[in-house]
Design brief:
Length: 392
């Protein structure tokens, strides 16, 4: 695969792996359709190529967090249904409607903003009314949702496409979390059964819901992390939600590989302490390689403290010191045959070794989502698919 344009550091995005993940999730959720969540530049994977590949491999819908993200898809000719997951501000409603994006509505003010834009443009805007069943981030209160749905149905400028909600702990495996998901789904069902007619679409599940909660699948599942090849939580991967869930998420393939080429190599004596703060002494005379990726690229400075290795020459090697803004140093060990230009893998496979975003997340006390989204905009994304024969 090719690398970045001028910078010897890049993220490879394997669209075949993405397609396989989409197909696996779509099959598991069927007959519910799949909505590929491509917000935040497709969790750092590149929204446009990911959206195209997801649609080609079976996703019926796309979802984004921001109107701007939806516009980017439309500007690149992506015509599939796109849901904007947050309610639109009045100033942005016209752009949303003009681009044919579907609006989330959680308030009367939001309803009116979308309707005004639709009347202005002379089209009917698609609306998904969102109900807050316990996440308490966004959504109409359960006892107000029916009136909002009726308001959408009564307005000729609006077309009700869906009623939906979002689960807070579908990835949780303990009894309290499971009870809460049951409660959220019961609340959602109660709201829906209070409507005079069932909306065309109901949706509630994120990846965790789609994989582990059959009753949450309804007509559409909104999968983000799963299409990028990761389990929503370590507990789900470790069998906490049952063997069936663990074996399913084990079949998802990580899509992103973070790589760079060694820029400099030096042999240093035992006791030398590379990088700022001189935090770590080389245990013996060793080859130290400099790699042009740093915390400005989303390699956390703290990764050094966690003892996280990188892959050089197919072997796991420790960082030789703290990660700097643009570069990091690797202790390749005594007499290592490492040369400038050699490929280093920070996240992904090399030889028989693999380091995943989930490994980083476990070490850093966060989740794979944050690791993936943290890979910065100055790291070029290289999209490749063996199936279609090369980069696109
Ligand atoms: C981000 C998001 C999703 C996707 O969640 P995953 O856990 O990545 O599958 C689904 N629904 C909403 C409302 C979201 O914000």
């Amino acid at each position: 695969m090719a690398e970045g344009r001028t910078r010897p550091a890049w993220a490879e995005v394997d669209l075949d792996a993405l397609a396989a993940n989409v197909a696996l999730l779509a099959r598991r959720a069927a007959p519910a359709a799949l909505c590929a969540v491509v917000k935040a530049d497709a969790y750092g994977h590149g929204a446009v190529p990911v959206a195209r590949a997801a649609i080609e491999s079976g996703a019926a819908w796309l979802a984004v967090a921001l109107v701007d993200e939806g516009l980017e898809l439309r500007e690149h000719g992506i015509a599939a249904p796109v849901l904007v997951l947050s309610e639109v501000l009045p100033d942005a409603a016209e752009a949303l409607v003009a681009a044919g994006l579907s609006a989330t509505v959680t308030t009367w003010a939001g309803l009116e903003a979308v309707a005004a834009a639709a009347r202005q443009i002379g089209v009917r805007a698609g609306v998904h009314v969102k109900v807050d069943t316990g996440m308490h981030r966004a959504g109409a209160a359960p006892d107000r949702a029916a009136a909002l749905v009726e308001g959408v149905e009564a307005d000729p400028a609006l077309g009700l496409e869906a009623v939906w909600t979002h689960l807070a702990v579908a990835d949780g495996v303990d009894e309290e979390d499971r009870m809460f998901s049951v409660l959220q789904l019961e609340t959602f069902d109660r709201v829906v059964s209070g409507l005079h007619a069932r909306p065309r679409l109901l949706h509630a599940a994120n990846t965790a819901g789609a994989v582990a909660w059959p009753s949450a699948r309804y007509d559409l599942v909104r999968c983000g992390i799963g299409i990028y090849g990761y389990a929503p939580s370590a507990a789900m991967a470790d069998g906490g939600a049952g063997e069936d869930v663990a074996s399913f998420v084990a079949r998802l393939q990580p899509v992103l590989t973070l790589k760079a080429r060694v820029s400099e190599v030096r042999e240093l004596d035992a006791g030398e302490r590379p990088s700022y703060g001189r935090r770590r002494a080389l245990p013996e005379r060793s080859v130290v390689a400099t790699v042009p990726l740093g915390y400005a690229d989303g390699v956390p400075r703290r990764l050094f403290d966690t003892g996280c290795p990188v892959l050089v020459g197919g072997r796991r090697r420790p960082l030789a010191g703290v990660v700097t803004m643009d570069q990091l140093m690797v202790d390749c060990g005594p007499g290592a045959a490492v040369a400038p230009g050699d490929e280093v893998v920070l996240v992904g496979r090399q030889g028989h070794e693999e380091i995943t975003a989930a490994d980083w997340a476990a070490r850093l006390g966060t989740i794979a989502y944050e690791v993936l989204c943290g890979i910065g905009p100055r790291v070029p994304r290289v999209h490749a698919a063996r199936r279609t024969g090369g980069a696109r």
